[in-house]
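seq:
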Amino acid sequence: MGIRALPSFNLTSTTTSSRLGGAIAQNAGFKAVPDSQLLASCGEQALVLVTHDVNTVPKHAFERVKAGQPMPGVIIVPDSLEIGAAISDLALVVECATADEMQNVVLYSPL
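struct:
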């Protein structure tokens, strides 16, 4: 099964964003939502979260794993990463990883 993602920032590549099979968090009503609530929603909808938040999201993601709650995966893309590199990394994950392989995983870009 392919990866469905919820980027918490706008992707400029329509090819990559459409292949992720998800929505932009802000456009889906998740702007300013606490990390724990955002991750719970991702867990309910089997969406991998793509985020710039390197400080708090990983902590909340690992807390969900430790508690045995659904955590379909997180991809951390730092603000400092050039957009082309970020898109290449996301395209690689979409092409090579399955939803099952992303379960309980926090990936850090660059890969």
